[in-house]
Amino acid sequence: MYDVENILQTFQKYGGITMFLPAFWVCVIYVFCYGKESGRKRLLFAFLLSILFVFNDLSMKLVGKMTGEGTYYRFIWAIPILPLIAWAGTKVVMEREKRWEKAVVFALIFCLFWGGKSSFITEGSIRVPENPYNLSSDVIQVCDIIDKDKKTESPVVIFDYGCQLEARLYDPSLVWGISRRAYQFHNDAEGYEHAGRYKTEKALIHAANFGVKSEPERFAKALKKKKVDYVVTLTEYEMDDYLEGTGYRLVGRSDFRSVYVRTE
Amino acid sequence: MAQLARCMLIIVLLGIEFGIFGTGFCKIFRLRLSACEKTLLGFFVYFGLFQTAALPMILLQRPFHELVWLWIALAAAVNLFVLFAAGRELIRLLRGFFAAAWRMKGLLLAAVIFLVLFVCWFQGTQQYMGWDTTDYIGTVNTTVYTDTMYIYEGNSGVQAEFLNLRYALSAFYMHSAFLCSVAGVGGMMIQKYVLGTVCILMHALILFTMGKRLFTKDEKKALFMTGLVFVMHLGFQTMYSASDFLLIRAYEAKGFCANVVIPAMFYAILCFWEQQEKREHWALLFAVSFSSVPISMSSLVIVPALLVIAVLAQWFTKRNWKILWRCFWCAVPNGVYLIIYFLYTKGFQIMIK
Asked: ipTM for the complex?
């Protein structure tokens, strides 16, 4: 949650459009009104202490300095939102005497929390992986091409974004030529004004991820500096001639990608 | 298929190990816990002990295979001890599970089991791929491939200059690497299918145990509550919700933090609020606190914060000074990690030899 500025926004983002946070507060009020005396006292103190120590903007700033404000949402995990709602829901459902009453109450709860935009069950989410590794078959093909061709134990490879994320999950002998930070913060085909110390890697991103062919000298220099053994890019970019010019020849193609190896 | 079958086998073996470790711990410290609580405790004792073996070796930059052999020897010793010294308790634990299943037999049990297994399947088939995925599973793969621990950056394979204590203080992924090397299965499959499933099953176990306590041992209500939470999980898709970390990223340490460590801590707090003097509850609180960082670095501040708030709330209600002293000892392990991590953020580094 990297675009929140205060604790209220953190809660809002966490709850999203769902009914869970309002339902949770209703349950808290229920426990507070109908719980045992000692339980009510404890709940009140726990509530006040958590606001005092954790859920306030000052704590968010202080703790955020060390762990990052963007990850402060994790403190919300410590609030038993779903168990408390489920406890109340179970009481409501199981204390009905007739079966049809139980079914109606359960259906009401089900409708309140399920379906709509916040559901995990969508058309695309029910899927069977392409292979047991649960990785893209195309990336596996790319790794196999490099594995058959490689002369060094751990070749340095630059990949397009999608392939970079998955390649080392299949073959850990490959070494990234473009770092995570370079891809995270400079993944565009724009100029180099804001690239800072990632200028070299940005030149590699331009070619591998966007198919930019207008800067052969800068690209060749970056390949040399990073000692890149293989270049993996999308076949649709038609980079064969461009890479030939920078000293890399085609070694194989997967369904969607082309793999080039250094010739010298 | 053979690799998938091995993954299934590891899930079963891990479940047995948690039972054995929990039984052994209860035997040594003479604790009386239910079958579910013993297994839950065993999970934390298992990872706590693994961390005790792994952390010195990580900091000393020893080869990974040494840790593999050390853990095989240690786990074997624990298994033998429990089999000889607490064999009866172990059989009682197994019998307890089967008896409970028999008592609860019916449509509700079948529906909840189906729901939990569906969530396991759903998690295993999702193809979420982010930078964190490359970091964590990359770390597991790199560890096995290079026979080193945190010497190479997990995501890129580039040699690091110093130990990244943000990750190296928790041996969770080294445990995954251990499973990879003994099973001969890749990191992706171990994390996705084995650890992801373990996270979901442990989450269900905690909810059921919690339900039993909240509904004074009414197992049907506890079962219903477990099912209801899982139904709600399927409808709580917001960025970074605990449900998101259960259904999409259960294999990450963060997923364990959100869905196992924190709910277990909450369960231990519920027990402690009920009977603040009972040794068993303090043992559970300590075990969860001790093993929280070994399982996930995300627990570093959250778990002690939760512990302190819960104990102070109890103290304001009952005014018992002893609980503050005990709370202090429960917070010590995370306090030590916190100091080391704080120093690391201020420039304290262990250079790679």
From this structure: 0.94
